[in-house]
Amino acid sequence: MLSEKMFEALNVQANRELYSSYLYLSMSYYFESVKLPGFASWMRVQAGEELVHTMKMLDYVASAGGRAKMLAVESPRESWASPVDAFQQVWDHERAVSGLIRALVGVSEAEKDEATKSFLQWYLDEQVEEEESSDNVLNLVKAAGNDNSALQAADAKLGQRRFKFPRGFEIFPYAASLGLTIGSLKR
Ligand code: FEO
Asked: What is the CA radius of gyration of the chain?
């Protein structure tokens, strides 16, 4: 059984993961509104990944005998000045999330909770990938700048990203068995 302090810290982090999903969904609709469907699609996939991060953490709390809590989710911004402005926020946000995960590992160490520390390694690995991919996209949109054809090429490239559930984890097991995944019903 995990300590109450550990359960609380995990529930708070699950809420931050859900906020991340909400933030990227907001960015997805922003990109739809400025007619960049590939960027919008990339953000929708990212929002789906964050929902996986949320549910995986809440599942861990529940399976360890705690109560998964649905804490209030903060409202994200609704608009950005440019694709660079949006992706700068993605990169800043992901680095901040990495700091939160490291702090959570610190709580597990203070609580002498080896099981949770081991569980959190997946999130640390995931953050390495997320920081790298957001940095790559930020550099791509910075290079495109105000060049519309370069922006359209970046939009086409980002639109190729597809959602993949992590091995052994599905949000909708029945839908996945039918080949339906987040975004597959759109367009
Ligand atoms: Fe789940 Fe991108 O942090």
From this structure: 17
